[in-house]
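INFO batch 0412 | record 1 of 1 | parsing
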Amino acid sequence: MRHTLAILLLVAAVGCSNPMNTKLPQDLTKMESIKSSVDKLSPEDKELFGAYMMRHLVASAQGAAFGSPANPVPDGMTIGKCIQEQKAYVQEHGAEDAARKSRTGKATPKK
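INFO prediction complete | emitting tokens
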């Protein structure tokens, strides 16, 4: 019984240390609190997380300039959700960029 309890506690501790499950603070001045979780990410995931944050910070700043409330981090957002959303964003906009380049490539005469 004691061993079972120890194993369950170990599994719970390991599961909680997954950086993808770390919730983002609503107050951007407290982003330092998630630094240790971000440091555990792979370089690709760090880049995706950084791009997500920049995209939302810029959009929030633009919205604030036009009178919209500034809230760059949705409530309950985790690092894992940020990375998933950024991957989808890159995939969607990458396809748009490729189509745009394809159209402009066909429109310009070759020398």
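INFO post-check: The chain is about 65% helix and 0% strand.
INFO record closed
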